[in-house]
Structure formats: structure tokens, C-alpha cells
Amino acid sequence: MELTIEVVVFAVFAIITLAGALGVVLARNLFRAALLLLVSLFGVAGLFVLLAAPFLAAVQVLLYMGGIAILIIFGVMLTRGMVQARQVMNSQWDLAAVIALVTFVILMIVIVQVAQGEGAPLPSLPRGDVAADSIAQLGAALVDPAQYVLPFEVASVLLAGALIGAVYIAREDEAE
Amino acid sequence: MIPLWMFLVVGAALFAIGVFGVLARRNAIAILMSIELMLNAVNINLVAFWRYLTPETMSGQAFAIFVFVVAVAEAAVGLALIVAIYRRRQSVVAEDMNVLKW
Amino acid sequence: MIDWTNANYLPWLIPVPPLLAFGLIFLITNRSWWLTVATAITATVTSWVLALAVVLRSVGAPVLGLAAPEHFGANAFGSSTPWLNLGTEQFSLGVAVDPLTVVMLFMVPLAISMIMIYSIGYMAHDPRKERFLGYMTLFAGAMLTLVVADNLLLLFIGWEVMGFCSYSLIGFWFEKESAYKAGVKAFMTTRVADVFLLLGIAYLFAEAGTLNFRDIFFNEAFLEKLAQTPALLLGGGLSAAGLIGVFIVIGTIGKSAQFPLHVWLPDAMEGPTPVSAMIHAAAMVSAGVYLVVRMYPLLEAGADPHHGIYSAPLLLMAYVGAFTALFAAIIAVAQNDVKRVLAYSTISQLGFMIAALGIGAYIAAAFHLITHGIFKALLFMSSGSVIHAMEHGEHHAHEHGHHPHNTFESDKPFDPQDMRNMGGLRGRIPATFWSFLAGGMALAGFPLITAGFWSKDEILAEAWTLGLGGEGFGPAIFVFILLVLAAFLTAFYTTRQLAMTFAGEPRSEAAAQAGLGGPRSMVSVLMQGPLLVLAVFAVIAGFVGVHPDFPLFGAIFSPSGNPFHEFVGGTLPHHPPTLAFNLIPVLFSFVVALGGIYLGYLVYWRKPLAAGQVDPTQAALDRISPAIYAAMRNKFYVDELYDAVFVKPAYWFSETVVSRVLDRGLIDGVLHFIARAATVIGETFKRFNRVVIDGVGDGIPQGIGAFGRWFRAIQSGNIQQYLLMVALSVIVIGIVVFWNLVR
Q1: B88 shares contact with chain A (CB less than 8 Å)
Q2: Per-residue pLDDT at C607 exceeds 70
Q3: CB atoms within 10 A of CB C551
């Protein structure tokens, strides 16, 4: 595989993603971990762009980085005092590392098996081009009764329920 | 063009890192963050498969969006729970939340 | 666009109103009793009307210019839509109305509507009555979903929702410890069975790739193949179809409270009486029988009970059903709680249906399901009316005695459900008496004029023809003998119940003062109106299934063949054979019903019990041995047995003393794990040694205790440790599965 500009960009984003992720799980300071989460999420957004999904990349930046990460930072600040922990890992971290490694190895075995398999090897080129109006198509698909309108509505109900529930759980108890 | 398997490898690695974080971190908020990493790994796979195998339909992207929604809901409820627990016990260490046992 | 006037779409709408009402009641109207009542009643009655429309559409109503559809069994109403795409497989969600569904749609919404009206009167003074109606509507919606479902998955959803509703309704008066315990017990017991059912569903899906009833049942090549394939586990000649069938039957055994999972149902009487009526008549237990009736073509795959070839699920049903029918009937004779008698009679009657299905009497089982649903709803609601009247009387009696009235049991409570406190209620609540009489006679199978006679007679007739009366198949003989005995006892205990409740003189202050507040009071009308409606059906519903050759009645009601038989038989791919009419089983039906009633009349009605008198049956049995009646009264100690075999050890397993070896059990990883296991083995050896030295000692229990102490460390409460275990298991399972795939 020659070293095209695309490969370089991919490598950069992949490294950003993985390095950020490693930072998240290893960082001693929780606040730093949250910031590294932002970095990692940004890397994923870059991968989305490479995969010709600009809308998802935008959502990733706006919603994930802008929403979830900020939410988490709020969480970090609301529980201040726990930011700088003496001990980052729990007592089973060694076993956890083994399991994570085994998970990765298994996934790799599966990928290799499938890539070399007979039936449908993993393509190195996309089956076709993404339509120019793919974002419009996505929008239409989400509100199309024949496709995703029901899951879409259910998801919105879920979201509303989750947020109301979150407010309810997290509020101060006035009675006590 | 980058072959599909490379994206899958990145996804697998991200997932494994997330697994480690979930299993090993003491701070519950860090566990939540690791879960976000795992969800992102799934999203990478969804979008990559979509791009390479079925770019003509919208299923991969639509599912990725639903994963977003679930991630937001999970983060909101999870953090609310953590804040509530913190208020009561002055701790967000997962190992301290062990009242529910034998 | 969807055309909602099309009969194919109509069934979708049937479960919707109650489900909608459930949401409305819980979210919006729960502050206002009258709004709640309006919502609940509107919803159930709407469902009822829709169901009636479907029924009319499918049996044909010449008056309205509707013709019955041709070959209705094969061309059912309904439609389905893809729901969940799993890559290569796909779940569809849909509704279908075939003849079996139609008869259920006749019975279920009728009973539900009546129960709902009745609940309004019954619960009028409860502080949480709005919530009650909310759960009831959810219950109704789930049952209707289950009935119209065209696939096993949707049916299972309705099934589980009902499980939840029964839990919350049985434990509705959760201030009473016994009530919430009963709720938990019902939930846990049915859960055991539901796990098996789910296994069966999963296995079926793996084999068939679909869960749609019609796709499976009308595909004979597939059923044939399934009956040939050896089962996945439990070898021993069991076929895949057999194993799936056994799983499904176990699901029914739990839901329909058959032996040995019947224990939850009597305890379910702790719930308010409308709930009992709902669970025992309209919904829960009927759903269990409905499931096996629905799945019959699968259960029967590879077998032919009409020619003496039985499959494993059929045999299981025949033996369990017949045994349960007799077993529960015996217990019912010794119960004094007015609702418990009915509970055991329900178990017994469900046993009739299951046993009938086990010997291939498909239509008789469906017929009994319908008639039983109606008259049992009637009986429960009547008994609720009796209890209400007793509470009213008790209230009255206390007002004169200046004694503070307590809604929930005080230290030595007066039990308004105990029949020994009743007597003479006939004059106090006449409308209830007559409806109770109609329901009780239907249950006893009073010949010719009650619905119960016709359906029970059909079961006995089939069992006779296939067993003693001709073909001589072993299971049919077994079923016939047990069911005849059970039918006799049924007639006897029903008469006993009627007599103890209504005949003679009042045996307590409360009974003397009992009443529903006069015939014009709202409560009285709401509670007794539905009774009268159902009483009419309890009498006439049997006439749809009279054998055409039955003397006189056949000529009147079935001049051109048995209508119920013709109609419901169309559900199956092959119309089940019509058996020739035979006078002997009819004679048996006459003799056992009338004999039982007459014996009950002699013992209980002619000389009504006096207050404090020993039950004559007990007196008679005690002459042989006091143990018999005690065993009957204590339900043959099944509860105690389960307590000793399952519950106690479980507690013991988890609770046994001293925290010695605890916390670090698994935390320090595999090394400690092994070391400790070695220690425990060493300990056990040491103990074993001591036992040898001490002679007969208590080494083994202590060994188990030590094991429990060691093993409970796994329950550390540490969520990450649990997760670690989950991840480990997933990896192991993943490796195993993947290995198989590669190989």
C-alpha cells in the first residue's frame, strides 16, 4: 500500500483516537482524562470524515464532544474532591488488562479469519460511491414511515425520559 | 484507499481499551467515559461497514445516530446517579458502592 | 395507505384501547377517580365492541349482509409488518385472527369488561383505586395482545406483561405481608416456567427461522422434519419437536398452575377479588391453556393421538393434566376459604383442559377453556360480592359493639372469606346467590342446562372413545378414570361451598348483618349487574357445542353438525375427526355430576352446619385416619416440601454465619481462588475425618455450609467484579462458539 495522503490522514486520526483513549483510561487526573476523551472523540470524528460520513462527524463534534464530554466535565466538577485520586486502578486491574488484551486478540482473530475467508472477504475498496445527497437521504430515511420513523420516535422518547429521570435523580432532596 | 480491515482494527483496539477502562478504573465517572469509548468503537465499525459494504442505503448511519442517542441517555442517567451517590456517600469509587451483596 | 375498515387491520386495534388507557390513567387521570373510571370503561368496552365486530365478521352475520369467509382457518384475518431485522433472520410483528382466536375474542373481552365494571364497585373505597384500574387495563391490553398475536414472540411479550401485572395486582395490598409475599411467589414460580418457555421459543426459532404460527403449522414438511430430528440435548429418543413441545408445555404448567408449579395460584387469592377473576378466568391461566391449544400442531408433530401414537409433550400433558385435575379437586374439598375453593377448582379445571389436549381432544379443550372462562369469572365475582357483603356485615356488627374497625387484619382478625363464618346469606344477597348458583352448577356440570356440562362431557366422551370405550389407548384410559373422579369431587365441593355460604342460619354476627347496601345502592348495582350478564352466558354458552346426535338437544342446537366443532376445527390444517356419539360417557357425566351434587346436598345442605361444628367430611375421614383430612387441608404439604427442599437451603446457602473467608474471595484473582478451593477441600477432608471418628456426625451439612460461605464471596456487591465475570464468560462462550464455527 503506497503512502497516499489519505493513508497518512487515517494514521494520524487513528493514533489520535487510540492515544486519547489510552490517556482516558490511564490518566491519574480525572479532569485530564475528560479532556483526553475530547481528543479521542475528535479522532473518531476524523475517521467519520474519512468514511464519507460528514454529517456523523459533525454530530460527533457537536453532540458528543459538545454535549457528552461537557456533561462529563460537569460530573467531574460536581464530584470534586475525587479528581486527584491516590489510586487510579482497582485491585483487579491486572486481570482486567488480561481480559482486554484477550478481547482484542479475539477480535483480531475474527477480523483476520473473515478477511481471509471464502465467502465475503473484507473489501479494500468500497462497493460503491456515496450519493451526493446522502445527508438528505439520511434525513429522509429517519422520518420515512417505511424505514426509521418508529425507532426515531422511540429514541426521542427514550432521550426525554432519560433526561427527566436524570434531573429527578440528581436533584437535591428538599424533604431531608 | 484504505482497506476496511484497518478501520476494524482501530475499532477493536478502541473497544479493548474501553473494556479495560470499565473493568479497571476506580472512579465511576472514568468508567462512564470508558463506556463512551466502547460505544465509539461500535460506531466506527457501523460506519465503516456501511461505507464499504452498503453505501447505497442509509442503515449504517441511521444506526450510528441511534447509538449517539443511547450514549447521551446513558451518560445523563449515569452521571445523575453518580452525583446522587456522591451526595450521599462522598465517594464515586465503584468499589465503595457495594451495599447490594450477600 | 392502510385501510382500517379492512378486516385484516381490525385486529390491530383490539389491544390498543386498554394499553392507551393504561398510559392515560397512570400519567394523567390518576388524581380523579371518575375520569379514571371513564377511561378504563371506555377502553375495555371499545375493545369489546371491536372484538365483537371481528367475531361477527368471521362467523358471518347475514343480517348485516356479512358472509363468513371461506376456509377461515387457512385464510385468517390479519397482517404483519417486519419488525426486527437480524441480518439473515427477521422477526415480524403481526396479528392474525383464526377460528380459535375468534372464540377467545368472544370470551375474553366480555369477561374483561364485566370484571372492569365490577371492579369499580368493588374497589370504590380503596385508597389506591386509580392505580388498581390502571394495572387492570394493562392486564387487559396484554391479554388481548396475546390473543391476537400471530407469532410466538408477540404472544410471549403479552405473556410476560401479564406476569408483571399479576405480580403487582396480587401484591396490591402490599401492607399485608402475606399479599406481597404471594405476589413474589406468583412471579417467581411462573418465572421458572417462563425460562423454559423462552428456551423452547429460542430453539423453535433456531430450527424454523420464524415464529409465525401459520408459517410453522401449515408447513407439514417442516413439522415432519422437526419430528425426525433428534433433540439438541437430553437425547433418549426425544425429537426436536418433542423437546420444544416439552418446553412449551412446561411454560403452560407454570402459567396455568399445573402440578408441580401450582403453588402460586391459591396464594394469589391475596389480591383483590376482581384480580382473582381476571387471573383465573379471563387472562393469566387461560393464556397458559391458550398457548398449548395454539401450539397443538407442533406438540402433536410426528404423533397421532387418535391412533394411539403419542409424542412426549402430549404424554406430559395427559399425565400432568389428569393428575392435577384430581389432586386439586381433592384439596378443594377441605378448604374453608371461599376463594381458595375456587382457586383449587380452577387448577382442577385447567387440568381437565390440559389432559384433554394431551389425548388429542383439541376442540373439547378449547370448548372447556371458553365455558370455564365465563363461569369461573362469574364464580369469582360472586364470591367477591359475598366477601364484600361479609365485610359490610362485620362493619355493621362492630358499629354496635363500639370496636374500632380496621381495614387490614388486626391481631386476631375476623376472616370475611372463611365459609365457616357464613351461612344463610341467601336471603341477604339474593342476586348474588342466584348467579353463584348458576356459576356453581356450571362448574359442577349440572346436566343439560349448564355450559360446564357440555364442555366437560365432550372431554369425557373423547377420553372414553379413545380409551376404555373402544380404542384402548393407555393414556386415554388413565385420563378418563382420573377425570371422572375429579368431576365427581368437583360437583361435591361446589355443592358444599354453596351450602356453607348460602344455606342454613348465619354462623356469625357479620353474616347476619351482611349486605351490599340495599338493591338501589351504586355498589350493589355495579357489582351484581355484571354477575347477571355472565350468569346468562354461563347457562347458554354450552349450547354452541352440542353433539349433533345427542338426543333432543342435538336436533335443536346442532341440526347441521356441531357448530363449535366445525368452526374451531378449521384452525388446524386437518379437521379433527368427529367422534361417534356414545351414550356411556354421557351417563358417566350424568352420574358423577348428579351424584356429587346429591352427596353434597345430603351432607351440607339438608343439615346445614352449625357454628363451631366439625366439617362432616372431616368427621367421616377422621374415622379412617385424621392424617387424611389434615393432608388435604394443608394441600398435601407441597408448599412445605418446596420450602424445605428449595427455599430453606437457598437461605441457608447464602446466610450461614460468620464471615471468615469472605471478601478477598475472587478479588485477588485466580491464585487465591485455587488456594482457597484447596483449603476448602482440605477442610472437607478434615471434616470427613472427624465424621469417621465421631461416627454419624454433621460433617456433610457443615461441608455444604463451608462451601456456601466460600461461594458467597462471589456476591461481593462490587459491580466491576461482576463485569469481569461477565466478560470472562463472554470470552469463554465466544471461543467455544467460534471454535465450532471454524471447525
Answers
A1: no
A2: yes
A3: 10
Domains defined for chain B, CATH in brackets: 4-93 (1.10.287.3510)
Closest-CA residue to C294 (of C43, C531, C96): C96
For residue C632, being part of any structural domain is answered with no
Q: Any CB–CB contact under 8 A between A116 and chain C?
A: no
Whether residues B97 and C719 touch (CB distance < 8 A) is answered with yes
Count of domains forming chain C:
1
| ipTM of the complex as predicted | 0.90
- Indicate yes or no: CB of A138 within 8 angstroms of CB of B61: yes
Residue C404 has pLDDT above 60, yes or no: no
d(CA C686, nearest CA chain B) in Å: 27
Please check whether residue C679 lies inside any domain of the structure.
Answer: yes
Out of A96, A106, A110, whose CB is closest to C724? A96
Helix (H, G, I), strand (E, B) or coil at C233: coil
Residue boundaries of the structural domains of chain A = 1-89, 133-176
pLDDT tens sequence across C118-132: 888 888 888 888 888
- Distance of alpha carbon C515 from alpha carbon C523, whole angstroms: 11
Model pLDDT for residues C534-574, shown as the tens digit of each residue? 888 888 888 887 877 777 777 777 777 777 777 777 777 77
SS (H, E, C) C526-578: HHHHHHHHHHHHHHHHHHHHCCCCCCCHHHHHCCCCCHHHHHHHCCCCCCCCC
Name every residue in C having a CB less than 8 A away from some CB of B: 654, 712, 715-720, 723-724, 727
Chains B, C: CB contacts within 8 A come to 30
List C residues 643-672 in contact with A (Cβ-Cβ < 8 A). 667-670
| Structural domain contains residue C159 | no
Neighbors of chain B by Cβ distance (3+ pairs < 8 Å):
A, C
Contact criterion met (CB below 8 Å) for C51 and C282: no
The residue of C91, C720, C722, C741 whose CB has the most chain A CBs within 10 angstroms, and thus the best one to mutate to test that interface, is: C720
Q: What is residue C285's predicted lDDT score, i.e. its pLDDT?
A: 82
CB atoms B66 and A151 under 8 Å:
yes
Domain A1-89 has CATH 1.10.760.10: no
Q: pLDDT 10s digit of each residue in chain B, 102 long? A: 788 888 999 999 999 999 999 999 888 888 999 999 999 999 999 999 888 888 888 888 888 999 988 988 988 898 888 888 888 888 888 777 777 765
C-beta separation of B18 from B38 below 8 A:
yes
**Separation of alpha carbons B74 and B81, rounded Å:** 10
Residue C100 within any structural domain of the chain: no
Q: Confidence class of residue C64 from pLDDT cuts 50, 70 and 90?
A: low
Q: Which domain holds residue C718?
A: 656-742
